[in-house]
Amino acid sequence: MSQLIRQHGVSVIVLDPSYEELDDRALEESGGLLLTAATTTDPPRVVLDLSATNYIGSALIELLLRAWKRLSERGGTMVLCGVQPFCADVLRVTRLETLWQTFDTRDQAVEAVLGVAATSDHAGE
Questions:
Q1: Among 30, 36, 41, 68, which residue is least crowded by beta carbons within 10 Å?
Q2: What is the fold of 3-120?
């Protein structure tokens, strides 16, 4: 089961690897959690932890894009962490790595999101 964790005011979604088995229910659950967070989390900052994810297929790519769009419409941000080698290859080949920053660890990703928020909070001063 995927889980939502709050870390320093950032919503961290730890993706469950069970969707890799092409289990529609698991994918729907993970997707629902991600899309709900993208729509409702306040402030709109999401870190998606993919450290337990070894496969990215078209269904997950669609979820990532939908979540990113919802966050973008709210002036938010989404970054990825723990991206495994195959997943990094998929992001690179599809050129999606240009949409989301990736970080090795969850802590690095949270710090980066907080840094972006602090920078935008002081814009125009």
A1: 36
A2: Transcription Regulator spoIIAA (3.30.750)
